[in-house]
Amino acid sequence: MENKLILTQDGSHTLLSEKFGTHYHSIFGAMNESEHVFLKEGLLKFIHKATLSILETGFGTGLNAWLTLQKTKNQTVYYTAFETNPISIALASQLNYPEIVLKDDFLKLHTCQWGKPFRLAQHFTLLKLNHPVQEYSLQSEFDLIYHDAFAPNIQPELWDRTLFKKYFDSLFPGGILVTYCAKGDVRRALMEVGFKIEKIPGPSGKRHMLRANKPIA
Ligand SMILES: C[S@@+](CC[C@H](N)C(=O)[O-])C[C@H]1O[C@@H](n2cnc3c(N)ncnc32)[C@H](O)[C@@H]1O
User: Fold this and answer.
1) Which of 30, 36, 169, 182 could be cross-linked to 14 through a Cys-Cys bond (beta carbons 3.0 to 4.6 Å apart)?
2) Domain 30-213 annotated CATH 3.40.50.150
3) Burial category of 128 from C-beta neighbours within 10 Å (exposed 0-12, middle 13-18, buried 19 and up)
4) Which atom number of ligand 1 is nearest to the Cα of residue 133?
5) Residue 71, Cβ neighbours under 10 Å: how many?
6) What's the pLDDT tens digit per position in 76-111?
């Protein structure tokens, strides 16, 4: 099933998933959501760390990975992204993101091989895994998790304690998870596996989002 290209309110594209019947980003602004939830409230907390290990569910259009690549030029980044339904290169080439001057560089995110670390830039290594994240055995090696799954009513298996416990165990102490979703059930499930939760202002069109912190001790 193919996805449909949609223009969001800040002028950036998202996709409408035929399979899941929902959008990949907020229709109030894909770029705005990504920059607010994942970059400002997640990545920025680690901007002075020399080496950074990030996990993303799911990779989708590659927007979060692309923005992270742009914002971390003075760091060394290992970026692991799970995705069960990779989009086609034809569709990726129509996305209007990358302050997309360097279209070829953006497309490398999509054309690079799955299952093998790929040095996308001198400072940035991408490992794309074409695997359901909840079935994968995660190593304990991440500073930051971008949890960008479709909503809990669409994919409840990506918002339960089983996956959140795996995330918790895979983070270094002091590590954080950010997500656009602030639902009470999600907040409680994250707390039950040990996270300390912050409910913070969300991006345009959304009152709140969550930041989940793994305590240092
Ligand atoms: C909200 S979209 C992600 C948006 C993406 N971060 C972006 O910037 O375009 C959710 C993504 O999760 C993927 N997905 C669905 N089930 C998954 C699973 N079990 N494990 C990993 N990814 C999954 C979907 O195919 C979709 O691309």
Assistant:
1) 30
2) yes
3) buried
4) 20
5) 16
6) 999 999 999 999 999 999 999 866 555 678 899 999
